[in-house]
């Protein structure tokens, strides 16, 4: 029977980490709208995760379930993948979206800051990919999250630690696509520009937000839904791999 073009991801099992808010939430809803069954992963905010689940249930398209796990730890990674495979026997999509963004220049970075940021932004995605790959078939997708700031010509010193983790993500994407490509698994990353998430808005004044919006030729900040469009594109591609897709409205 031919696939329903209205639900091209019907039958696909997707894990989205950090799915309760922001880009993760928008990606969850976008994938479910196309028929995917989505695992809504979160680590602390159960209410927000339940809100995301309720939004998916309103769609009448894909399904979703919530799995709490701290994917900055190996035990959390293993728990998330184990619960998914026990329920669905396979994984078709991994959106490794969970992340933290401390504003830390060199002088003010502590060892605890460094360890926490790399654990969440790098170690988690790395070992998630390792854990899901054995349960993926040819044509499956792993999508990481980077940032346009990796290539922006003007970057404030406070992004040093965050950008360091995203530089690692871009190299993981490039090399892992060769590694997992041997199994037919496609590996890419999305690199958003400034995007209106709770994480992005935290600690920024209205004046700073206006300045950041002014860096974009369209004079505005992107939305989580616009980044989710990019995730959906990569989730349906068959020949795009090893790429970092910069979704920033022409900013950089």
From TrEMBL:
<keyword id="KW-0560">Oxidoreductase</keyword>
<keyword id="KW-0521">NADP</keyword>
<dbReference type="InterPro" id="IPR036291">
    <property type="entry name" value="NAD(P)-bd_dom_sf"/>
</dbReference>
<dbReference type="Pfam" id="PF13561">
    <property type="entry name" value="adh_short_C2"/>
</dbReference>
<dbReference type="GO" id="GO:0016614">
    <property type="term" value="F:oxidoreductase activity, acting on CH-OH group of donors"/>
</dbReference>
<dbReference type="InterPro" id="IPR002347">
    <property type="entry name" value="SDR_fam"/>
</dbReference>
<dbReference type="InterPro" id="IPR020904">
    <property type="entry name" value="Sc_DH/Rdtase_CS"/>
</dbReference>
<protein>
    <recommendedName>
        <fullName>NAD(P)-binding protein</fullName>
    </recommendedName>
</protein>
<comment type="similarity">
    <text>Belongs to the short-chain dehydrogenases/reductases (SDR) family.</text>
</comment>
